[in-house]
Amino acid sequence: MTRAAAILPILLALALLVPGTAAAEPGDSVSIWSMDYQPGHPVFINVTGPFNMSISIRVTDVEGNIVAGRDAALDEFGSYTYDWSPQQDGDYNVTVGWSTGFTITRPVLVQQRVTPEQIGLLYQFIYGVESRLRDLIVALDLKANVSIALAALSLLFSGWVFSRVRKTHSPAVSEFEKFMRSEVEGSFRKLIEKKK
Predict the structure, then answer these.
(1) What are phi and psi of 35, to 5 degrees?
(2) pTM of the prediction?
(3) What is the pLDDT of residues 39-91, one digit of tens each?
(4) Is 154 in a helix, a strand, or coil?
């Protein structure tokens, strides 16, 4: 017996012992639906495949924690529906595994929708802010007008004080200034005459 002929049975035995990859059966599928995908409302997970086959359903959050799920068997029509009510919004993954080893994972987004009451409260808040801003602008306009009037009054008062001081300027001061000027001019004249 040749060496290749001796290796052939070993390779055949290894091929039978090594597990193959799980393949999908015709009709294996997962569909997910809900009326609104909101917290507290049911999300339906429908699984199909060969009848009476065992399945496992696991719902995980973004951290990989299992938040819901169960093991079940498909009915005589090859179908099973699991209803799950998420308690909070977020991203979830639904993983379904068949007993053949085949798995399917589907993402689900659950989020709180804004209700008409919440929209009404938002409009009330926005209108309240707008009316407060209008009142503030009116108050600031009034303060600005008062500030302009006070500035004009202070300019008028300063002008009046300046004109009053000019009119009531002491003649003694001006006589003193004349005397000092004549003394300085006289001193310069004497210096000039001495140099001549």
Answers:
(1) -70, -35
(2) 0.48
(3) 989 999 999 998 889 999 999 999 989 999 999 999 999 999 999 999 888 99
(4) helix
Residue closest to 163 by CA, chosen among 175, 153, 155: 155
Last residue of a domain, one of 110, 135, 160: 110
Start-to-end C-alpha separation, the chain = 151
pLDDT tens-place string over residues 93-151: 999 999 988 999 999 999 887 777 877 777 777 777 777 888 888 888 778 778 888 88
What tokens appear for 73 in the block? 């068997």
Number of domains in the chain: 2
Q: Which secondary structure element, helix H or strand E, spans residue 15, and what is its range?
A: helix 3-17
* Structure-token match 């991203």, residue found: 91
* Residue type at position 110: V
State which residues form the domain around 156.
115-196
What is the C-alpha to C-alpha distance for residues 21 and 24, in angstroms, rounded to an integer?
Answer: 10
DSSP state letter for 75 = -
CB-CB contact of 92 with 67 (8 Å): yes
Residue 14, CA atoms < 13 Å, CB-side half-sphere? 5
d(CA 93, CA 71): 16
CATH number where 85 lies: 2.60.40.1930
Count of C-beta atoms within a 10 Å radius of residue 89: 14
Q: Which of 30, 68, 70, 66 is nearest to 54 (CA)?
A: 70
